[in-house]
Design a protein that fits this description.
alpha/beta, four-stranded mixed sheet, 9 strands
Length: 259
């Protein structure tokens, strides 16, 4: 018996898709996780077992192997919990296999079955979209940032039973919709302004050219020459970010857990 689900992992500020393969046989009950997992991923074996049991779901009494592909890339963190458990439950017949090829599952499980938030969800959802997944299930606390990714349907999941009922068709989870107007309503306000700088004609000219042409800038000089003063005021002459630029910047905040 073989089941396959999809999730994603982080590599820098970008994500890559991870395929979770579960192979089950009617032998002595066991669960092994392979595919270059770190300690947090290996410990998911006990988390997903306890989450299922405490949610009132029978954990399959089978010999199971969970493979996280590609097996040559290291998997770190707890965001794979949800995908691994769905794969296990599919092998056990608790969850139907139909439609899983268009879904991606992201989230950490508590022992009670609650789905906990993880960092970098925005990057993970972008990776899922790149690989053709149209439905992404994420922790409810991460749903707002995940919904910023266009062309995917984001489902906020509170706990394991809610997800299982949705996959069975017993209860529908309402998807989260994204309001792009939040990017246009808010305008950045700065306590300083570029017009306050007196003198520094050459430096100001260089910064104006960089802002107009989208170039990089490196400020070099001894302490007290005004590098920090100019750098603090530089954003006040930059144009408003486009939606794609805002997404790219937010990826860094998402991974750092600073949203």
């Amino acid at each position: 018996m073989l089941a396959r689900t999809y999730t994603a992992a982080l590599c820098g500020i970008d994500g890559f898709e991870v395929t979770v393969e579960c192979s089950a046989q009617k032998k002595l009950p066991a669960l092994e996780i392979i595919g270059l997992p770190d300690t947090a991923v290996k410990e998911a074996r006990e988390r997903i077992r306890a989450a299922a049991t405490n949610s009132g779901i029978r954990f399959p009494s089978l010999e199971m192997i969970l493979n996280l592909a590609p097996a040559n890339r290291r998997k770190e963190g707890s965001a794979f919990d949800l995908a691994m458990l769905v794969s296990v439950l599919t092998c056990g017949g608790t969850v139907p296999a139909e439609g899983l090829e268009r879904m991606s599952f992201i989230g950490e499980l508590s022992l009670s079955g609650e789905v906990r938030p993880v960092d970098g969800v925005l990057c993970l959802c972008l990776a899922a979209r790149t690989h053709g997944r149209t439905e992404v299930f994420v922790p409810a606390a991460n749903a707002a940032e995940a919904s910023a990714v266009p062309d995917i349907c984001v489902y906020p999941v509170r706990d394991l039973m809610q997800l299982v009922r949705h996959l069975r068709g017993e209860e529908s989870i309402a998807p989260v919709t994204f309001d792009r107007s939040i990017f246009t309503k808010g305008r950045a306000t700065f306590p300083v302004d570029f017009s306050e700088v007196k003198g520094q004609a050459h430096a100001k000219r260089a910064l104006e050219i960089a802002a107009a042409g989208g170039h990089n800038v490196l400020l070099i000089g001894p302490p007290g020459t005004g590098k920090s003063m100019l750098a603090k005021r530089f954003p006040t002459i930059l144009p408003e970010m486009t939606f794609d630029e805002a997404i790219e910047t937010t990826k860094i905040h998402s991974i750092a857990g600073m949203l």
